[in-house]
């Protein structure tokens, strides 16, 4: 780790200027990296973030994969839509449509799915995946994965709805061809996730069997087209051990995206890092979370580095009520900082413009934050993202995942920085 740390520190001081130069350096390795951006179904509402912004900002052209989040697994053990109005019902104006043409009343397919089709038409190499589960949509994964019959039932329903495009009360196959695969976001097999989730000790084995069933049914669809199968994976070694057979699951997955954020947050009363590459010197927790610790935890259980994709946050974690002075890091706080959509978190596009804050960086750890003497935001800006792409390349990983695209600014600065480093 010391050698890798020295290499990252050596390039970090000029990271901001290397955004333009990074493509040539990456190409010298002869490796193709995946760049996965999550688009949230609900972002079209209060956040005012339609897929047109992914296209018009230039972000779509910089991605290899777009994950559409989320499709829940129901108590009946099948796939369904969490919001049919957003998925295929609502209309978009010309200004909010990917192709610049307004939806019209009565068209066969509308909503985000129609916009995804338009996005793919403009970006033919972009692969779009439906993400199943998520934090609030994983309650019944354990039941659905429990038996061979229940696994077959779940997988066939997911493929019928999302891959074959057989939407309720629509012409059969109306949405066929929009999705190029499935992303499993079971949070978490064998351990706690959202309150009320069904959890079993058998989840660990059943996750492998579920992945195998998805792979088998996807492969039967077509001999000419490969459908991707990916999974969102935890950073915590305890959750890895409880829920995943790391040496087996990658036989079925094209790649897995490792959570590289939420290492600390405003549920704690100490300002800290949420997405550092390495554990910062002087960190009060031992052991502690970091991107490198998460990746190493996966390789120790047999995951191939080339199939591990590091997750990167487009949002900050924040604390307030700090009175101890200094740069604020590791200081005691009274609670979460005020955020636009939720206290304790804030989009990059908002945090970068906050007045009165001083920017601090720890290049050795790969961590940056803002502090105004009272309020503390830990976040990643384009320079920090470039440093993380150097880590991804030096570590031999498969690429980067971004949660989520609506947190970036109107110029897609974070996405473009990541793409430049991994081109």
From TrEMBL:
GO terms for molecular function: chitin binding; endochitinase activity. It catalyses: Random endo-hydrolysis of N-acetyl-beta-D-glucosaminide (1->4)-beta-linkages in chitin and chitodextrins. Its EC number is 3.2.1.14. Residues 33-423 form the GH18 domain. InterPro entries: Chitinase_II/V-like_cat, Chitinase_insertion_sf, GH, Glyco_hydro18_cat, Glyco_hydro_18_chit_AS, Glycosyl_Hydrlase_18. Gene3D superfamilies: 3.10.50.10, Glycosidases. It comes from the Bacteria. Residues 1-28 form the signal peptide. SUPFAM superfamilies: (Trans)glycosidases (SSF51445), Chitinase insertion domain (SSF54556). Pfam families: Glyco_hydro_18. One of its GO terms (biological process) is chitin catabolic process. CDD domains: GH18_chitinase (cd06548). SMART domains: Glyco_18. It is an enzyme of class 3 (hydrolase). Keywords: Carbohydrate metabolism, Chitin degradation, Glycosidase, Hydrolase, Polysaccharide degradation, Signal. The keyword Translocase does not apply. Belongs to the glycosyl hydrolase 18 family. This is chitinase. It comes from Paractinoplanes tereljensis.
């Amino acid at each position: 780790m010391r050698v890798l740390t020295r290499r990252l520190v050596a390039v970090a001081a000029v990271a901001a200027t290397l955004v333009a130069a990074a493509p040539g350096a990456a190409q010298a390795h002869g490796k193709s990296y995946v760049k996965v951006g999550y688009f949230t179904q609900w972002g079209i509402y209060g956040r005012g973030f339609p897929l047109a912004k992914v296209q018009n900002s230039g972000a779509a052209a910089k991605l290899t994969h777009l994950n559409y989040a989320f499709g829940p697994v129901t108590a009946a053990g099948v796939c369904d839509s969490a919001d049919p109005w957003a998925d295929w019902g609502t209309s978009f104006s010309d200004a909010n449509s990917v192709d610049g043409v307004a939806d019209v009343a009565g068209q066969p397919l509308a909503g985000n799915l129609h916009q995804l089709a338009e996005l793919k038409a403009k970006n033919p190499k972009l692969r779009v995946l439906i993400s199943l589960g998520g934090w609030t949509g994983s309650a019944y994964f354990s039941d659905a994965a429990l038996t061979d019959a229940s696994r077959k039932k779940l997988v066939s329903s997911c493929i019928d709805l999302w891959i074959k495009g057989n939407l309720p009360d629509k012409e059969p196959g109306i949405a066929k061809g929009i999705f190029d695969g499935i992303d499993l976001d079971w949070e978490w097999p064998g351990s706690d996730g959202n309150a009320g989730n069904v959890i079993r000790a058998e989840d660990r084995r059943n996750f492998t069997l579920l992945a195998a069933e998805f792979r088998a049914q996807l492969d039967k669809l077509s001999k000419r087209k490969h459908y991707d199968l990916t999974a969102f994976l935890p950073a915590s070694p305890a959750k890895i051990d409880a829920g995943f057979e790391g040496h087996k699951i990658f036989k079925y997955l094209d790649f897995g995206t490792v959570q590289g954020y939420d290492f600390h947050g405003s549920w704690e009363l100490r300002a800290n890092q949420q997405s550092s590459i390495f554990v910062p010197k002087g960190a009060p927790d031992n052991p502690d979370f970091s991107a490198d610790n998460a990746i190493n935890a996966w390789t120790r259980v047999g995951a191939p580095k080339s199939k591990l994709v590091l997750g990167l946050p487009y949002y900050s974690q924040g604390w307030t009520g700090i009175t101890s002075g200094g740069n604020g890091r590791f200081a005691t706080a009274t609670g979460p900082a005020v955020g636009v959509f939720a206290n304790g978190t804030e989009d990059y596009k908002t945090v970068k413009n906050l007045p009165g804050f001083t920017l601090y960086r720890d290049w050795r750890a790969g961590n940056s934050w803002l502090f105004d003497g009272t309020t503390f935001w830990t976040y990643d800006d384009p320079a920090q993202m470039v440093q993380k792409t150097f880590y991804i390349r030096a570590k031999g990983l498969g690429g980067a995942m971004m949660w989520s695209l609506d947190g970036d600014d109107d110029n897609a600065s974070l996405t473009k920085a990541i793409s430049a480093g991994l081109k």
